[in-house]
Amino acid sequence: MDGHEVDRSRSVLLTRRLAVLTGALVLASSGVAHAGDDPGTSAGKCQVIKFCVGASDGDETGGSGGQAGGSQGGSESSDSKMQCRYDKVDPKPPAAWPGWKGADPKKNDVYFYGCTDGGQNNPDGFVVVPIGQPPVPQVDPRVLAQRAVDSMTLLGPDIASPRAAGKYTVGVPMWMWVNQSATTYGPNTATATAGAVTVTATAKVSKIVWTMGDGASVTCNGPGTPYTSSQGMAQSPDCGHVYSKTSAGAQNGKFPVTATSTWTINWQGGGQAGQLTEVRQTNVQVAVGEVQVVR
Fold first, then answer.
1. pTM
2. Per-residue pLDDT of the chain (295 residues; tens, 9 = 90+)
3. How many structural domains comprise the chain?
């Protein structure tokens, strides 16, 4: 959408949010105003309580020609891809409005903010600031969570087995496992801060999917169990594969094995919590032969 449509959408959003707020204030503060106090229905007026704003041209909520929020110079700010607009609410809500959160309306202003990242992430709400001070840009905790993840340097699996230099045999169980570290398996914790908001994120691999090069795929929900000679011909208890053919026909005579890890990241901060997912890969070439029987 173009700039005009964006501004109109913000105006419509603000008008509707304030209309809902108006209804709530009527219930909470019935003594502040009554239906007969202001019978006008034109832009910027309200039949119920004197805390309304004019609707923009063509707004289906009614009215025309006003500016959302009674804005006296709206302002815009951004954080990463997040674009936010602030509109000063004038006249101010009555002192009974819960949104003041104990602040003195005589010493503070209230702004409505609407943000978008160009997609479906569109947080909005009200922010109270001291008179004469600009509103502090709102920070989306989800943006900070991703920033924390980006600082972790999450890598693909550190494959311990199978080894590129190893030689494996058809019909013999192969045990697969990975070395564990903060960057290749987790847990890995990082924080990101912007303004008064701090988000902490913790990442850990939740599964590893192995594609074995022979058409088979193996999903392991852990790092795998290291093989020891005492295990003999036993199969891995949690992460293994048995090849039924050699890699002689594969390119370079080896099977291309790929280990794909899924990182699950839990984050919290800024009064919110959520989960993110990252995917990383590691490749290895594996030679698989047959046991030659000597007669």
1. 0.60
2. 554 554 555 555 555 555 545 444 443 333 333 333 333 333 443 333 333 332 233 333 333 233 333 334 444 444 445 677 888 898 999 999 988 989 999 999 998 888 776 666 677 788 888 998 887 666 788 889 999 999 999 999 999 999 999 999 999 999 999 999 999 999 999 999 987 789 999 999 999 999 999 999 999 999 999 999 999 999 999 999 999 999 999 999 999 999 999 999 999 998 889 999 999 999 999 999 987 655 5
3. 2
Measure Cα distances from 2 to 6, 57, 226, 273 in Å. Answer: 6, 17, 58, 33
Residue 295 lies in a domain: no
The last residue of a domain, from among 109, 138, 167? 138
CB-count exposure of residue 27 (10 Å: 0-12, 13-18, 19+): exposed
C-alpha–C-alpha distance, residues 277 and 199, integer Å: 16
Please check whether residues 198 and 125 belong to one and the same domain: no
Instruction: Give the structural domain span for 245.
Output: 144-289
Residue 294 lies in a domain: no
123 and 255 assigned to the same domain: no
